[in-house]
Amino acid sequence: MDLYPKNSTPHEEDNKVSTHIRDYKQVGAYYFQTDGSQMYRGSVRDVFWHVNDDAIKLYLSGAQLHGLTIWKARNNAIIQMGWKPRNVSDVSVSKLRIIHNRWIKPDAYVSSAILGASPLYGDPKEIDVQRTMQVKIDDVVCEGICAALMTIAPMQNFDLVISNIHFEMLHNDTEQRLGRSVVDMDAGEGMDNYTPGQGNSTLGIHIKNWTIGEVEVDKKNAGEDRLGQLKNNPMFDGNWSIE
User: Rounded to whole angstroms, how far apart are CA atoms 67 and 138?
Assistant: First the structure.
């Protein structure tokens, strides 16, 4: 569902459409690009989506989402915040339940992660530090073997708070590396989400109370070769936190 106002502007965030979705079921992700609904200003509550592509598209301000159950197949992120620089605020996601995820390989362009911000389509690549993506995500449970927490290519500033996340298990195959989170890095084939100029942005990402199995992820065990498998560009070391 993509709605366009009669008097459109070049920026999606100027869209004044509002929607309220409740008790909506989507089953049968037969196509590679079977997406979830785009989120406009308004609310989404108590939904079940079987998707093959982006499930939750956070492209616009003012979306309040609660009670989402996602059955995820193999193409792209569950929460998508990328593809172009965006100016988004007053967005929240709470009580997200991921009952199945089935990525087949790590990918930074079509993000193989729970949270994704894919790089810009086409050239030249654009970084806009006048824009900020401001999102709060709380109460996330991923059942079974889970892929990476995040794969992010910053194209604007981020003000992202992710709290109370529980993975039953994080994918830990040392060859596939599906559990590895990559932020603003060239991490090898298929995993390059670095664009010159990203270092001018603010990567305000704050992770609070993330557990994998019975173990809490903190600064000491969050690294690429440790429990959390987080690979972040060192230039952002002072911008993000985990506690």
Answer: 11
Bridge partner residues of 25 (DSSP): 48
Q: What is the pLDDT of residues 146-199, one digit of tens each?
A: 999 999 988 999 999 999 999 999 998 877 788 988 887 666 666 677 788 888
What are the tens digits of pLDDT across the range 109-134?
888 899 999 888 777 778 899 999 99
> In whole angstroms, what is the distance from residue 48 CA to residue 67 CA?
9
53 as an active site residue: the answer is yes
Active-site residue (options: 14, 35, 139, 225): 35
Judge whether 24 and 50 are in contact, CB under 8 Å.
Answer: no
- The answer to whether residue 184 is catalytic is no
Strand 25-26 versus strand 41-51 pairing type: parallel
Q: Which of 53, 54, 107, 184 is catalytic?
A: 53
pTM of the predicted model over 0.85: yes
